[in-house]
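Example 293, ligand adenosine-5'-triphosphate.
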Amino acid sequence: MAEQIHESLAREIAQTGVAMLTGSVDTGKTTLGLLAARMALAEGRTVAYVDADVGNTTIGPPACVGLRVLDDLDDLDRISEPDQLHFVGTINPTRLVLQQVVATAAMTDRARMMADLVIIDTTAVVSGVAGETLKYHKAELCRPDMVVALQRGGEMEPVVGMLRRFLDVAVSVAPSDPNVMPVSPDERAARRTEAFKKALIPPLERWKVRPTVFAPTLPVGLNLSRLDNVLVGVQDPGGGCLGLGLLIHDDDGLRVMTNVGEGMRGLRLGSMRLDPETYETTLLSLREVMFGV
Ligand SMILES: Nc1ncnc2c1ncn2[C@@H]1O[C@H](COP(=O)(O)OP(=O)(O)OP(=O)(O)O)[C@@H](O)[C@H]1O
Ligand SMILES: [Mg+2]
């Protein structure tokens, strides 16, 4: 039953212009998105897949929104390799709603120019003030032709009601597939570790960095050791992200370790630290790092 619903939903998505997929954790968003992409490609349409799920990533490294343009079915095998990235700086978007929304909207704008169909896969944060704010402003800026809401019970109703009332968006609500296998927290963490490893492959280049290259700007007199192990986005001059970097502070001063230093224009500070040995993550507040509050 649910499988048939998803099959027809995927067909509907495959024929639209911009579709945004929403739903809580393990509701089958990505599976549905990839099925729709496959159907559209089989019909000769080009697809731009925007992966806004910064914690549980399909395209490119975590903490970034990734974009992949798919021209034919074979491209689906290489979907993890991004064409473009936009840095968000966290794996938990509830702390950085602005950055998350802007990154998704910027990528969607680019994607519209690159393909017939744009599929936006979003994070599982769908409830509470942060979840509702996220989905509302994402829909407001991305202007999807349809939003798909997958739910187990009625958990998507507040978001769905809001999108219909305030933005006049067409929302298709469907039950999540009962066959979906939940991914355990351990498995999720392990996948994320792997994804960070892949984004920061040894041997990493070590570039000396001046304190003036950061966004946001460092306060005068900041003890630079406070930036040790902070994740950064290595930025190109067009607002795009070349890939991830990790700040290291030692006797030589401040350096960024990265695989993508060529063409680096500046560094965007993320809101997390990453252990360079274990790739374990801890969230941080930039205000606290910079001003101690
Ligand atoms: N119809 C199905 N039958 C069996 N397994 C499925 C089905 N659909 C999805 N799965 C499996 O269930 C898991 C979760 O599905 P999926 O990744 O699509 O969900 P998601 O909503 O994108 O999750 P997340 O919130 O983690 O991004 C995956 O391991 C997927 O392979
Ligand atoms: Mg997913």
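Summary: The longest strand covers residues 241-250.
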